[in-house]
Amino acid sequence: MAALHAWRAARVTPLGELHAPPRMTAVLVRLAVQVVLVASLWHGLYAHTGTTAGLSEGQAVSYAVLAVLASRLRELDQYAGRDTVLQHMHFGTIVYWYLRPLPPQRYHALRALGEQLYGFTWALGGYLVCLAAGVVDPPRSAAVAGVFALSLLLGQCVLYFVLLTLDQLCFWTVRNNAAMLILIFAQNLLSGVYAPLWFFPDWFITLSGFLPFQATLSVPLSLYIGRIPLSDAFEQLAVQAFWVVALFLFTRFLWRRAARRVISQGG
Q: Which helix H or strand E contains 13, and what residues bound it?
C-alpha cells in the first residue's frame, strides 16, 4: 500500500504533461530552438578566438547546451496539477496534506522525484541527439562520466532543497510569487545557466562560492567539460554533499515549524 501511495504521488505532475500533447509539443519545439540558438551564439563568440576564460570552443558550446538540457530536469508546469504549496495556501487546502496517508514532507519529495525523473527523460533524449549530431563533446573518459553523474545527482538534491525552502516560506508569507521570480533568476545566474561563472569578475565567483547555487549545475557541468579536473573532483563532491546535508536539516526544521501553523479550517 505504501508503494502504491508513493507511485501515485510521484506521477502527479508528469501525468499532467502526458495528458496534454500540445504542451509536450511546445516543450519539444522550445527545447530545440533553445539548443540551436545557444549553440549558434557560442560558436559565434568563439569564431575569432581560441581559448577564453580557460574554455575552448567545444567546451563552451558543450557547457551551454548541457545547461539548457539540464534546465528540463525541473522545468515543469506544476500549476497545471493545482497541487503546489502556493496554490494550497491561497485556497486554504494545505491542511489536506496533513490528512493524507503520506506525511507532507514525504509527499513533497516523492512528487519532486517524479518530476525530476520525467524531466530526466527529456534531458537524456536531448543529450543523446546532441551527442550524435556533434553539438556536444562526449565525456573524456568513463571516470569523468561517472563523476559527472554523481555530481549531477548531488546537484539536483541541492536544487530540490533550495526550491523546497521557498515552498516552505509560504507557511509564513502565504504568497511568494516575487520571491520565486527572484530565486529563479538568482539560481540561473549563480549556478552558471546564463553563462559559465569563469566569465564573471573574481568577486562574483567568490560570492557564489558561499552560496548553494553553484553546486546545483556549475560544478557538474564543469566536471563534464574538464574545467574542473578529476584531481579536484573529491573536494567539489564534498562541498555538494555538505549543502545536501545542511539544507536537509534546515528544511526538516522548517517542516516541524510549518506544521504548527496549520489549522483545521485550511491554510
A: helix 12-18
What CA–CA distances, in Å, run from 94 to 33, 103, 177, 205, 244?
38, 12, 17, 39, 26
- Cα–Cα distances in Å, from 39 out to 11, 134, 140, 221? 33, 11, 20, 16
What is the C-alpha separation between 224 and 218, in angstroms, rounded?
A: 10
Enclosing H/E stretch for 4: helix 2-10
DSSP 99: T
pLDDT band at 194 (very low <50, low <70, confident <90, very high): confident
Tens of pLDDT, residues 119-173:
888 889 999 999 999 999 999 999 999 999 999 999 999 999 998 888 888 787 7
Q: Which residue has the cell 523546497?
A: 164
- Do 113 and 63 meet the contact criterion of CB atoms below 8 Å apart? no
Is the pTM of the predicted complex or chain greater than 0.85?
A: yes
